[in-house]
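Batch manifest, entry 17 of 40.
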Amino acid sequence: MELFKIFNNTNNEAAEKGQISRNAYVRYINSDELQHIIPLSPYEPNDVLSIAESIRRFGLLDPIRVFYDSHKGKYFIISGERRFAALTLLGRTRIMCHVITDPQTRDAIIMAEYCLKENCDIFRAGSALEFLIEDRGYTPTDLSRFSGIPLSRINKLLKLQLLTYEERRRLLAAHMSSQVCCEIAEIDDYSVRSTVIDYIITQTPNVKSAIKEKISHRRCFSFGSEIIDNSIAKLKSLIDRCGLVAGFERAANESDITYTIKVRK
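Output type: structure tokens
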């Protein structure tokens, strides 16, 4: 699926006239007519404040992308929620938008905006995938084929929809990896899940500190290769979950096996 190339005409006069392309056009839309298509995710208030200051000084350089649903007669934001929040903060009631009318183009933009960006918000990515599955009848396999995202990752992102808004906010604030978040999402009992999140958020800084101080460069001597191999595997998993990168070197001779572990941020 190719992302439709929307023309980047930010000329105010052309926008006011609603200059038309085949599947997209530019126009000003009242802010109260715009609705969110993907549930909002927690983000730092300072993000919106900095965007608002930029818009105040330089104007809206990148219009918000919206999809016009002709059946519902409504506009849905598909890209630019933070810009929309910043414009609302500035008291803007008419917002310049790129309006998309083709559903396939909308789907491609949603995938590109929420799922394919580097360091994307994993919770919003999961919400976007869930929306496409429910609205368009895609399967996870279809989405994997369209986007090139491995099917295993798509299934993990979909699992994250089991987490509440507050759980997502806390995990995002703690910079937890997607793997940790997915494993937490698999816990069905909310009270247990909340306890696990509390523990992980409290203990992770201590674990990271201990790893950096005590295991940054250590040599372990074998007293049974199977036991030490299992221990190394568990240690590597723990280090990965803490967001660190570990290098393991194994040197063997006739009498013993030596492991060297190096950990870096």
